């Protein structure tokens, strides 16, 4: 409450009286303005997001981690190769393209993907091209079935057919993943497809 002194308003003398302090309102439906109260929480959330982003890893860093896990999938690296000739380590029309358009770098990895009690093998390749145009051309070619690929790292006689496949362009880098069942595995096709997509998604 505040005391209002006697005064004149519009030619009329107003007697001294008391009145309540006006309440500041704002936001939706006249609710109290709590934007400043919420501000520290927003800063905290942004800080947490920044820390999480800085700690995040994917298959693209690669192949520096032996085991990578996510919901429903666990990946264990079985083999890794850094460098080498894209021409010598490719086949089909992809090989022919790389003769005419040499790559600038190549990394390959082989992972075992476990889902429950079943497992798959995921062969990955990171192909660095001189520019984004050639990277897109290579991706468009390798995305077509039976046009060839980068020679896959493999183990235990697993042959990659390209039926469970995904790819992504990250600037001038083409990221390729193929999945097949590990020996004795009963992993269904939909999970083989999901494993390839999961790997590519985390590799960029």
TrEMBL record:
Name used for this protein in its record? Uncharacterized protein
Q: Which UniProt keywords apply?
A: Membrane, Transmembrane, Transmembrane helix
Taxonomic lineage: Bacteria, Bacillati, Actinomycetota, Actinomycetes, Pseudonocardiales
Q: Which residues cross the membrane?
A: 38-59
